[in-house]
Design brief:
The chain has 11 helices and 18 strands. With about 425 residues, the chain is α+β, with helices and mostly antiparallel strands. A hairpin with a 5-residue loop joins β8 and β9.
Length: about 425
């Protein structure tokens, strides 16, 4: 991706904007000398501008990774048609001013200014990714109105030429794809915890690049496992913002505040959603989510369940039973804030439990292009229940693709199965 800066004023404006980017940004000349860093860089790498400008970027790279950096720079220098390169490796690290190493992911782009090639590094600190995303999600909601005004201002300045519009669109899509990597990182952390605790499968099919569905887990110090599946209002970027907020609030309520009763957790979650999105105030955002929350005992012989508009399905001896939920969502009903309830079940060896969002059963398809509906979904779970979980996931995935055919996926899809 090439970026062309026309004149000192434009360049100054571009660099000013980079201070509002949440990632650390470094610009070097083609010899690797640093000519610009933004404010997030100085906080993450713990350098002052006066200490880092005109220094070689190699001071930020541990010795064992300098060959990788030099090879990438060399490729970009000799390339006439340069495209962005993503470097997302667990062993990629940076150096802070005191010599501390920390994991990073970075994107390298070539930019052209005053007749010379320069290089722009966009760097993410992966050392505390979850807490960083939590903070970003809250800040994004607080800054929502300012961002809209800023977007409108930018809109008025957009050149109407097709080439420039395409360039802007490509950059937006690129940002969304990078957001997907962040979202996937959070989800993968949760799935790894579940995998260590119990046999399971997770079928996760976003409708767009990023998803309004999410799953979350936490194992307590006493050995109990919390598992949640949520379906936030909307799809794509708006839905994804709410998944980040929901993930942050579950961390706060269960991990930080140590709530352990599933019904009280959902009641508190609703209270926080209403407060943060200003539901009761004029102009507040009337969004929320449906959610299923499980607490599984250490010996896996008992489940505590609470659900906001989504049930739990228990398959035992070839028959499936629907464990009812509370028929209201998180955040929607501000005038009738009834408390959430819970159910407790003793588990028997061979039991299977399924929780899901409504995307699977709401998918249109088949010969008559109708919804699969809950009955069709449950019949499919029974039909495939004799398979091991890996094969059952594969069967469910193949069926929904065949059912949808050439049609449009109407919603995000998430199904989680647990084998006791």
């Amino acid at each position: 991706m090439f970026m062309y800066f026309r004149g000192a004023d434009v360049m100054e404006n571009k660099l000013t904007i980079l201070n509002y980017i949440l990632s650390s940004v470094i610009i070097t000349d083609d010899n690797g000398k640093i000519i610009f860093v933004n404010e997030p860089f100085t906080k993450v790498f713990e350098y002052d501008n006066t200490d880092i400008i005109n220094k070689d970027i190699s001071i930020l790279i541990p010795r064992q990774y300098k060959k990788l950096y030099e090879r990438i720079i060399k490729i970009h220098k000799i390339s006439y048609k340069t495209s962005d390169v993503d470097i997302i490796k667990t062993k990629s690290v940076g150096l802070k001013s005191d010599g501390t190493e920390f994991p990073i992911a970075f994107r390298l782009s070539k930019i052209y200014y005053k007749g010379r090639n320069h290089f722009l590094f966009s760097i993410e600190d992966l050392s505390n990714l979850t807490s960083k995303i939590d903070d970003q999600a809250k800040k994004l909601i607080e800054l929502n109105e300012d961002l809209i005004d800023y977007a409108i201002t930018l809109d008025t300045k957009v050149d109407k030429q097709v080439g420039k519009i395409k360039k802007i669109n490509d950059e937006i899509i690129d940002s969304i794809r990078y957001s997907k990597k962040i979202q996937d990182t959070i989800l993968n952390n949760s799935s790894r915890k579940i995998n260590k605790f119990i046999d399971n499968f997770i079928l996760y099919i976003p409708r767009d690049i990023v998803s309004g569905d999410f799953y979350w887990s936490h194992k307590t110090w006493s050995g109990e496992m919390f598992i949640a599946i949520g379906d936030c209002t909307g799809h794509g970027v708006p839905g994804a913002f709410l998944t980040m907020l929901s993930n942050s609030l579950l961390n706060e309520i269960i991990i930080t505040k140590r709530y352990r009763d599933t019904s009280k957790i959902l009641t508190q979650l609703r209270s926080e959603i209403i407060k943060l999105l200003s539901h009761k105030e004029e102009g507040g955002i009337k969004d929320g989510l449906d959610i299923v929350l499980l607490k599984i005992s250490k010996d896996k012989k008992k489940i505590e369940f609470s659900g906001a508009n989504n049930p739990l399905y228990l398959l035992r001896n070839g028959e499936i039973k629907t464990i009812k939920n509370d028929p209201y969502s998180i955040g929607y009903e501000t005038e009738n804030e009834r408390k959430f309830t819970k159910s407790t079940m003793k588990m028997i060896s061979g039991d299977k439990v399924y929780i899901s969002t409504d995307g699977y059963q709401d998918q249109f398809g088949g010969e008559n292009d109708k919804k699969l509906k809950r009955k069709g979904f449950l019949n499919l779970l029974i039909k495939t229940s004799s398979l091991n979980l890996s094969k059952q996931k594969e069967s469910l995935h193949d069926f929904i693709n065949e059912w949808k055919g050439d049609g449009f996926q109407v919603d995000d899809i998430t199904v989680l199965g647990l084998d006791f």
